[in-house]
Amino acid sequence: MKIGMVCYGTLGDIMPFVVLAKRLLSAGHTVRMCSHSHFSDLLQSKNFEFVPVGNPFDQAHFNYVLDKIIEITDPVENILFFVNNRYLPEAKKWYEDCREAVKGCDVVVLNNFDLAGQEAASVNNIPWVTFIPCPGYVPTAYYPPLSFPQLGRWINPLSWFVLNRILRKIYDVPFNNFLRSINRPERRDIANISMYSKDLNLIGASPALCTEYPDRPNNFKFTGAWIDRYDSSYVPSKELEQFLKAGSPPIVVSFSSMGGTHGNETAKTIVEVIESLNERAIIQKGWLEMVSHTDNPNIFFAPFIPHSYLFRYASLVIQHGGAGTTQTACAAGVPSIIIPFLGDQFYWGKLLHEKKLGPPMIPISKLNKENLKEAIEKTLHNKLYKQNCVAMQERMAKEDGPSVALSFLEEFRRRGE
Predict the structure, then answer these.
(1) Which of the listed residues 40, 157, 233, 399 has the most CB atoms within 10 Å of its CB?
(2) CA 159 → CA 78, 141, 147, 150, 154, distances in Å?
(3) Which fold would CATH assign to domain 2-225+400-416?
């Protein structure tokens, strides 16, 4: 089977596809990775067939969008800002490149929000399967949508109905303008229903962490998280090894590919709080380029380090709430303090607190020294958080998301033959 993977987004959006692609290759399938040229070194190093698609990645513009999003506290509104200012302006180029790149594939796997990629597969009569990193976007009577309170299984459907009416007015117009521009059929309820595949949707989330509700449609399948348990190819630097051996388990800070222009300011806040608590920390610079001038030997600023390696040494993780980062922390048995920027990150922040795997989230727009210090102290001294995280680690260790996804894809292909 030849699988095309259309990967739009940041590093956090792409890494689940890399994990699945490695599993597909090991099973004898062929994988063609289609993504931004910005990630060519990463994707070509994994022995995938790589096709660059879309516009060159513009870090300055991405930072501008993230700065604006931080000012928008409503999760629906900040995603809309991202769509209108980041995704749709480059969607036509993405569609045209992907239309050529996926030719010859038997099936295409892509993100549920990537309508341009979906249309590129459809125009070639290639079936497409969506990857859903966040089950919180899939309607269910048992859990409310983001920004809505839990009102029970009899009232939650009304919340989903109200949200759908709101999203229809907000999202359908700009997306359908795009679809008309490429001579493709319009869709209805794009942000809630028609962004999913009619055939197969793979929810790449842990069923131990995210409850698998009985009312989800049969074409939505939980697989488990698409995360690397351990990247055996990673070799730590001598400086990192020495730091890890030099003292107690550090706090790990990682906002991954969340950008913006306030990295130094954020780093300064975090460093001052950690120093006031006399704790050790590893701070990944990430796309925020977090750097703070300090000669404190207990603070280690690091470039990219695979989370599957780093989190095993952490006392807690301060992170943005990305689906992969959050589930990797849970798989390592480590509590998280979630500082969400946008979208589904608020779902993960809410979920971890509900599961007593960490304290209440702190939106990045509200982060300050006082609430961060309180959250760190509460997390480090709360034995229940650690106990629950270890129990979650044991449950997730029994899961193998990429292998389950592989079996669903192979079954899907057999049905189509």
Answers:
(1) 399
(2) 20, 9, 10, 9, 10
(3) Rossmann fold (3.40.50)
Q: Are 34 and 51 in contact (CB under 8 A)?
A: yes
DSSP structural state of residue 225? -
**How far apart are alpha carbons 93 and 76 in whole angstroms?**
25
66 CB burial (10 A radius; 0-12, 13-18, 19+)? buried
* DSSP3 helix / strand / coil % (the chain, rounded to 5): 45, 15, 40
Tokens of 354: 């509900």
Q: How distant, in Å, are the alpha carbons of 1, 109, 202, 323 from that of 129?
A: 14, 5, 7, 19
pLDDT at 360: 95
Q: What is the longest distance spanned by two Cα atoms in the chain?
A: 63
Looking only at the bridges linking them, the beta strands covering 201-203 and 251-254 are unpaired
Task: Give the domain 238-396 fold.
Answer: Rossmann fold (3.40.50)
Domain ranges of the chain: 2-225+400-416, 238-396
Cα–Cα distance for residue pair 206/389, rounded to 1 Å:
14
Alpha helices in 45-155 (DSSP H): 59-70, 75-82, 91-101, 115-123
Which pLDDT does position 45 carry in this prediction?
Answer: 67
- Separation CA 255–CA 325 (nearest Å): 9
pLDDT of amino acid 341: 82
CB within 8 Å of 58: residues ≥ 6 apart: none
In the predicted model, is pLDDT for residue 290 greater than 60? no
Instruction: Sheet containing 201-203: give its strands across.
Output: 49-52, 30-35, 2-7, 107-111, 128-132, 201-203, 220-222
pLDDT digits (tens, 9 = 90+) for 127-175: 999 999 999 888 999 999 877 888 999 999 999 999 888 888 888 888 9
Q: DSSP per residue over 383-402, as a string?
A: HHHHHHHHHHHHHHTT--HH
Selection from 55, 50, 60, 46 nearest residue 18 by Cα: 46
